[in-house]
Amino acid sequence: MHPNAAITGWGHYLPExxxxxxxxxxxxxxxxxxxxxxxxxxxxxxxxxxxxTSVMCTRAARLALDRAGLFAQDIDLIICAxxxxxxxxxxxxxxxxxxxxxxxxxxxxxxxxxxxxxxxxSVASQFIQxxxxxxxxxxxxxxxxxxxxxxxxxxxxxxxxxxxxVVLEATEQQxxxxxxxxxxRGDAEHILAIEAGGSARPASPDTVAAGEHFVRMQGNxxxxxxxxxxxxxxxxxxxxxxxxxxxxxxxVPHQANSRIIVATQQALKLDDSKLVVNVERYGxxxxxxxxxxxxxxxxxxxxxxxxNLLMVAFGGGLTWxxxxxxxxxxxxxxxxxxTPLAA
Length: 343
Ligand SMILES: CC(C)(COP(=O)(O)OP(=O)(O)OC[C@H]1O[C@@H](n2cnc3c(N)ncnc32)[C@H](O)[C@@H]1OP(=O)(O)O)[C@@H](O)C(=O)NCCC(=O)NCCS
Description:
Oligomer: single chain
Structural class: alpha/beta
Distance between the termini: 12 Å
Strand order of the largest sheet: 1-7-6-4-5
Number of strands: 13
Bound molecules: coenzyme A
């Protein structure tokens, strides 16, 4: 029988510096009222000079390992979801591996923008179900502030920085990642992009002068697709898990815009009490948004073995993704660690 992939640890990290709507009013032609009514965002975090994506990911990962009761050497794979890596080369996952001292782990990066965590969760769970890995660290981190044009009001009010991680572990329990749904529409690549700095448009004085290394976005185009993609992929993930929406204990949506969250909630007919929302405090933290909200929810609970969580996101690419996770009896998994796992 294939093992299942259960979450046994989680953690998140947010930079201390807060950029409020009032701060942004002094930087671009915007207002607290416009930002709050159009997006629900009140403030976001901005990384300090020494807080790179790998630094924040490592802090979140240490918390996740502590929570799981594991050492870094116990991990055999690290998947790092990011669109804002420290460097184009080496991968940020490798930097996290070194910083953690996860000497027994392979490491790679995965870039699918704001859906990165859910894509990585899907990949990680399949490494475990195939028997290739026993313990996988899925970490997501973004320093989107480094790619923001703070003169462009259509983007800079929306995004923030942060990192979050989960440990996925093999279990024989009927729990863990029950289903995932991944989708993409590459023909819409132009509506959210960082155009320069890659091989198609290498960085040059011209690209820098034109601001092509900043995030550019057609927000209202994304808005329309986002609601449909979030609702459809949620329904598919719940169905693939053999459940109905009423079996879902909590929904953790991508935190891009409270209006998108509410429209998705209405499409899925969800009570307020089922939704995990923190967009007002952190804005859109890219691939990190779902796992930060998940970690905050898990820190405050309550959650019990057998509870079903639905996570759903959309992002650049365009991409969308959803996953259903049944909460495992973590104490039982920890208790069985003394027994060597079957090869
Ligand atoms: C970006 C978003 C908040 C804009 O809201 P919207 O209601 O669609 O607003 P529009 O883009 O139609 O712009 C309406 C007006 O507000 C203006 N505006 C845009 N940003 C503004 C800001 N920060 N402050 C004040 N006015 C602003 C526009 O210039 C436009 O003015 P105009 O009517 O004179 O041309 C919304 O479209 C959104 O959230 N989209 C999804 C974006 C997203 O999630 N991206 C990440 C994907 S993971």
